[in-house]
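Figure 6 in text form: structure in, sequence out.
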């Protein structure tokens, strides 16, 4: 697990650093194009005619400095752990300046002398002490600027990688929570459904066989909940109708279930097994507690960018007081909505005028 986390962390950092590296590479190339253009213009303005000379001067500086930049960039990756302590990071990066400056000057002037010699000319310049002072000062200024830019880019990359890791960890935590909730749903749902089917096994084996087939589809959805936490409302209603048919067979003429569904809501994405706990509650707390017929209505409609789902019955009763107790099924459903949608989704229970309970779910309508 640690190795996998380390690999993911490195990959996140590399992905986050890719764009800053590309941006720096483009800026570096444009900088040297500008330097060469200025060098050529200055040479021509001073009466020079050999354009290759300023191109050689700036080109040799570009080649050597690019090599130093490449080496320093590779080394900077090992200093990322010091990014939260900038003074230590800059001290470690600037420690190479006393070595880099003379190496740069020696390499650049060696290239210039070599090319001039191949062209049959002598490369003339100021005395070496003057050259070293001037070039060392100029290189130090560019080196400081480069180190500051590298610090900014590496800090940006580290911040972006940290954000990616936090997002990945949030998603992993969310998946783990959904898996835990799914494991709670399966035994609770299975117990109630099997009780319903058990009542028909001895009296009507053929009907029991049909109901078991419908239960299989529901159980498959429950066991796949962690892998497929979302589905379309159309598929959700198919499973809900299978559950309703099981319960309808058990209670026969004691229940009337009506589906009032706006077809425009069918493609909307909803958490799997979203409505089954609400319908199950209507049976447990309404139909099972009285002999008189109970009417249950399942509704779905869209309101702007919101999906509104309702399951209402005319038999249930909520306890007095503002606080409504949540059972296992509703508590699980509320937690799943919170995990998936946060504060943008809600689950409420309220008393109906004339008796009964209305359960309402509102969530963002995503198709």
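Output sequence:
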């Amino acid at each position: 697990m640690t190795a996998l986390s380390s690999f993911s962390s490195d990959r996140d950092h590399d992905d986050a650093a890719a764009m800053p590296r590309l941006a720096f590479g483009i800026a570096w190339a444009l900088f040297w194009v500008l330097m060469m253009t200025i060098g050529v213009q200055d040479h021509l303005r001073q009466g020079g005619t050999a354009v290759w000379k300023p191109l050689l001067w700036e080109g040799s500086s570009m080649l050597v400095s690019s090599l130093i930049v490449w080496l320093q960039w590779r080394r900077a990756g090992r200093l990322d752990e010091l990014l939260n302590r900038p003074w230590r990071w800059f001290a470690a990066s600037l420690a190479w300046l006393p070595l880099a400056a003379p190496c740069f000057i020696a390499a650049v002037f060696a290239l210039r002398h070599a090319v001039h010699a191949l062209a049959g000319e002598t490369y003339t310049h100021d005395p070496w002490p003057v050259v070293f002072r001037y070039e060392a000062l100029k290189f130090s200024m560019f080196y400081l600027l480069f180190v500051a830019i590298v610090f900014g880019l590496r800090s940006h990359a580290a911040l972006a990688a940290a954000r990616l890791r936090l997002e990945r960890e949030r998603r992993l935590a969310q998946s783990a929570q959904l898996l835990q909730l799914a494991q709670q749903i399966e035994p609770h749902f299975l117990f109630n459904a099997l009780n319903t089917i058990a009542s028909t096994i001895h009296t009507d084996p053929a009907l029991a066989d049909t109901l078991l087939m419908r239960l299989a589809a529901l159980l498959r959805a429950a066991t796949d909940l962690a892998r497929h936490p979302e589905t379309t409302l159309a598929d959700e209603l198919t499973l809900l109708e299978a559950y309703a048919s099981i319960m309808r067979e058990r209670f026969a003429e004691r229940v009337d279930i009506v589906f009032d569904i706006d077809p425009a809501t069918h493609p909307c994405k909803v958490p799997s097994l979203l409505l089954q706990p609400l319908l199950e509650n209507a049976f447990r707390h309404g139909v099972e507690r009285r002999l008189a017929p109970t009417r249950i209505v399942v509704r779905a409609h869209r309101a702007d960018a919101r999906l509104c789902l309702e399951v209402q019955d005319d038999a249930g009763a909520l306890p007095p007081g503002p606080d409504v107790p949540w059972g296992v099924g509703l508590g699980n459903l509320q937690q799943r909505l919170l995990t998936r949608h946060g504060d943008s989704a809600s689950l409420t229970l309220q008393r109906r005028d004339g008796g009964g309970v209305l359960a309402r779910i509102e969530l963002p309508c995503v198709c």
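Caption detail: The mean pLDDT is 80.
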